[in-house]
Structures are given as C-alpha cells and as structure tokens.
Amino acid sequence: MATTTTLLSLPNELLGKILEEYDLSLPALYELAFLCHRLHQISLSVYIKKSGLPKVSERCIVTIPYHPESHDLVTVLYLSSDVTQTQYFRCNFPRFATERGMLHHFLRVVRFVAKLTVVKEVVLNFNSFEEITYVSIEDEAIAWSYGLGKLLNTIVERGCSSLEVRGLLKTMGVNRQVMAILTIEDVDFYGHGHGPLWATLTELFRHAVPALKALKLQKCRRSSNGQVTQFIKGFPKLECLTLEEIHPFGQLYDRDPWARVDHHFLPPELPGLTRLTTLRSEPKWVLPALRSYAEGSLPALQNLTIALSYWVYLGWGSNDQQLLAELAKLGRNPAFSVDVELLAPEDIVSWMRELTEHNMSLEESAGWTNCVSGIILLVDRRLEWFYQPNVTDVVRRWYHQFPRLRKLIMNTRVDDPLAVSSVEQFCRMKVSRVVKGLEHFEVNGRPLQLSTETL
Fold this sequence. Notes:
Blueprint lengths: L11 H10 L4 H7 L4 H14 L9 E4 L9 H7 L5 E8 L6 H17 L2 E8 L12 H20 L4 E5 L5 E3 L6 E8 L9 H11 L5 E8 L3 H9 L6 E7 L31 E4 L1 H12 L8 E6 L9 H13 L6 E8 L3 H14 L10 E8 L11 H9 L7 E6 L4 H13 L10 E4 L2 E2 L8
Parallel strand pairs: 1-2, 2-3, 3-4, 6-7, 7-8, 8-9, 9-10, 10-11, 11-12, 12-13, 13-14
Antiparallel strand pairs: 4-5, 14-15
C-alpha cells in the first residue's frame, strides 16, 4: 500500500531548505512558526537567516524599526531556542523615539540579552535618530534611566568584555575592561536637545556600574557644579578621577527636571571618595579636593595633577589665590605628590621670567611652589628663545622656585617639525644644564640625559 508523504513527514533539514528556497515573507514565516511545535524552531531559524544573520553565534546586528511589528527580529531572536550566545551584538535603536517608546525598546532588548549565556562585545547605537522627544514628566525620565541602566547591567552580567554606547550626545566608550573605565568627553549637554540629561546619566550609570574605578569628564559644556558632584557621588569606589574643562550653563531649560533645584548654583564640591588615589583636575575642583583631604574624605590620595593646559598663568584671579594659599599649607612634604600641567607660550623665556616675578610678589601663597614634585609643560607652537639674552639664568631662577621638583616633562601638542625641534633644542641646550636632582626628565615622550656641564 502506497504511503502519502506530507510536509511534516519530511526531515527537519529538508523542511528548512524548503522554507529557505520558497519565497515566504518574514510575516508569513513568523505565523508559520506558531502553527505547530515542529515548525516553530525551523521557521524562526529561517526568519533569522533571511534577516541577514547567517551565524548569530558569531555576529548579531539588529536594527529596531520605529514601528516594530509583532514579528520583528528582536522578538524572533528571543523566541528562538537555537540562539544562546553571540560574540558580537549591535543594536541600532530607532529614529525619532519618545522616552516611553525607547523604554519599551530597552526592555525588549533586555529580555533577549538576558537569555544569552555569553555576549562578548556589545555596541548600543543611538546615532540613527536625531533627537529624543522629551516628555516633561520626571517619573518617565527616571523610568527611561532605569530601563537603560537595566540593559547595561544585563550586558555586564553576561560577561561582556567590550561595551560601547554611541550617540547619547556623542560617543561614550568603555572598552577592554568590564565597565571599569567610563569616559564622557567633548559633550554639550543641551546642544540641539539631544540625548539624556545629567539626571538621566546619573540614574542609569549609578545602577549600571556601581564598582566603577576610573571616571573621566572632559569638555562637558553647560554642566553645573552641582550636577557633576551628584554624578561623581554615584561611584564611591572610584580610584582615578579626571575633571577638565567643565563649563557652566549659558541658560537654564525648564524641561530639565534638575532645573527645579539649586544644583546649577552650587560651588564646586568633591564628595568623599575613600578609595581615590589619583585626581587630575582643573583648578576649580582642586580647592574642594584639598579641603576634602584635610577633612579626611580622601584618605587614599597619592597623586594630584592640576591641569592648566588651556591657561598660561596661575594665580591672577581671586579663586587662584585661595588655591595657591591651600597649596602653600602643604609645605615641602605633603602626603601625596603634586604635579602641575602648564601651557607654555611661544616666548617661553619671557613667560618663565614673568611667572617667577609674579610668584615672588605673592604674600600668603608665596610658598605654593614648595609642594610641587612634577611639572608638565605643553607647547603648541615653535619656541622663540635662541636670540634672547640670559636664557640660562632665567631658566635657573624659574627652576629654583620648585625645591621639591623631581619630574619635568615637556611635550609638543602639534604635529609641527619646527615646534618639536625647538622644544628639544631648548631642553637640551638650556634646561638640561640647569636642572639638578631630577628623577625623570622627558621631552616629547623620550627621556633626556642631564648635561654634565657646569656654569
């Protein structure tokens, strides 16, 4: 008696090939997956392949549409029992999404990532949209933050070794270590209305990376002192902190939930960080750091770098005078090293002469140079010094202001052969003949031997 061959009597491999060859749409494949248990996994696997993912275990790239259907790729990946891990996962979030819509997408991606046993490299790409349409309800902003924070937490829990978040303003990258280093750089927090506000960043990262060890905030425009302080407080285990070029607000925006409190007008304040060993900061954050240290709030501090890479002089303003007075109190034997980074102008000889004379005219803060153990001089152009008189004497007087100096570094920040050459000649022909007792003398990344000549 002849047997009848039906579709379901065929082997799974053959069924899969038939569904791949047959011109079924993605919605049809999704509906077919729920006709019976046997077709479920076969149809979902074909759906994933037709979506451009031949080997999900190696590379999984998902683009969420603005209006996702019930059968979109994120849902299918979650339902497929064959998808258990991936080496690389990138999610492109949709264009023109509301906070509520983005929260829905976050939670769907969380559901998919949570089912994976391993995900090594992750990219969350928000560059596909131009702006988030904000809803001025603080509860929704907090929920949005919680959703993204939950997504970041889930990714880290899956053993992620490289995480990159693109587009929440500009690129924020955390690489090589599992969320051990966070950099937020070159950002305008109100430019064009993009991305989350400080309140959102504070909420999501505080929950996502509570064990963060290194934080760098640099070139953050329209950011108040209070907002930065609140953000730092979320990471009590910090060991390294960088604060540079953090500029205040030009104006306030009512849609910011934080505009209803006084964070915008608070003076700089550094919270107690019991594990902080290294602080690199512009002057306005150094003064509160010294006060926190005196109060015992920074007990582990080992190195303080005062970054003046965009100024020429230190000590002209009233705030600078307070800072120098606090540095003078440290004396010659502070419990931590103090480095000063300065921008040297083209006429470096006149600059050294004026700086020496200015320091000699100080009263309460006259001894601030006694605590300095390292100086980094940055150069942006060719130095003009060769034909000036008494260069060696000027350098000697400038150097003798720093009796505790053990490290001197000069670096050229521009790719200009003439500038590089002028710095190296100046150090070799003049500086090396004056400095004594240095443990480290470096020029453009290379150690420089001190001169044995006696003048």
